From TrEMBL:
Pathway: Carbohydrate metabolism; galactose metabolism
Species in which this protein is naturally found: Blastococcus xanthinilyticus
Lineage, uppermost ranks: Bacteria, Bacillati, Actinomycetota, Actinomycetes, Geodermatophilales
Domain spans labelled NAD-dependent epimerase/dehydratase: 5-243
UniProt similarity note: Belongs to the NAD(P)-dependent epimerase/dehydratase family.
Protein's name in the database: UDP-glucose 4-epimerase
Highest taxon above the source species: Bacteria
PANTHER family, per the entry: UDP-ARABINOSE 4-EPIMERASE 1 (PTHR43725:SF53), UDP-GLUCOSE 4-EPIMERASE (PTHR43725)
Amino acid sequence: MSSTVLVTGGAGFIGSHVVPLLLERGDRVRLMDNMSRGDRGRVAEWVATGRVELVEQDVRYGGAVHRAMSGCDQVVHLAAVSINKSEADPYESVDINIVGSNNVFKAAADHGVRRVVFASSASVYGDPDRLPMAEDDPLDPLTPYCVAKHTGEQLLAYYARRSAMTWIALRFFNVYGPGQKPTAYYTSVINHFVQRLRSGEAPVIDGKGEQSMDFVHVHDIARAVVMALDVDAARANLPINIGTGIDTSVAELARTLIDAVGVDVEPQFRPRDVLVSRRMADISRALDVLGWKPTIDVRTGMQDLVDSEIG
Ligand SMILES: NC(=O)c1ccc[n+]([C@@H]2O[C@H](COP(=O)([O-])OP(=O)(O)OC[C@H]3O[C@@H](n4cnc5c(N)ncnc54)[C@H](O)[C@@H]3O)[C@@H](O)[C@H]2O)c1
């Protein structure tokens, strides 16, 4: 059944992979984005299909969100400012990531929207005590951004108790892939290594490179978003991890990228005391509830990225 889907922040990195999947399944898309980081060229191509409408507005304005919500059956809420900006400017972060999210969820409940899919984040867990990280593990959000993601999940639960709306919060792990901005917080290390390798220099790793991330390809993220729109209401109203279930250390990443770029160098290790943080998702709930599992492994995904664009 095709829907009219409101996608907030849809002109950004993840949105640019979600919108084509929605169009493929026959939906109409209303994109609400203030274009602070959006890709205008891409949006113009979608608008030309006649099935995408751009509402160039800010989620901080409740009235604008209400108007944009009118006639939509489903919502994908991606608009947010990133974790590093949240430390530099907590006021803006709270405004966009908490007040903005509240505007979106309240309007969705008021307009009879049947499903909201919210871009939450693995950062709600803080530094985990054990791996893999499961949805019922204790949460310890460490920055205003992480607090906002946690609050967003709780606000969804609140509105769902008072309306027909159902929700799924996808806790994305370390998303990478074509279209990512080089400044992306966790994954900037990919861009940094690739830049060095392209000029024939070895990647430099602080400490032993043991800190790890769960790198998940943006195409798999977009698939999860669309699958979360379709899940039966009886199975909704919960957070779901979206990662690969594999932790890749910075040292392994360096070796993977050396192979992908195809240069004959060895990573250099710079002795440092490094706080070793590790990330690895338990993805059993994603399989159980969404029927989702990742399709792109890190080696293939990094090769695809190197071949496609960055640098
Ligand atoms: N990329 C990741 O690794 C990652 C990991 C976990 C969670 N997430 C979450 O996924 C979502 C999408 O992330 P992304 O990587 O595509 O980010 P992005 O910055 O590329 O996209 C965000 C979009 O939101 C828009 N936007 C920002 N503030 C807005 C506002 N006030 N009103 C309307 N639009 C606004 C921007 O113009 C941009 O197009 C975010 O909620 C992010 O927190 C991303």
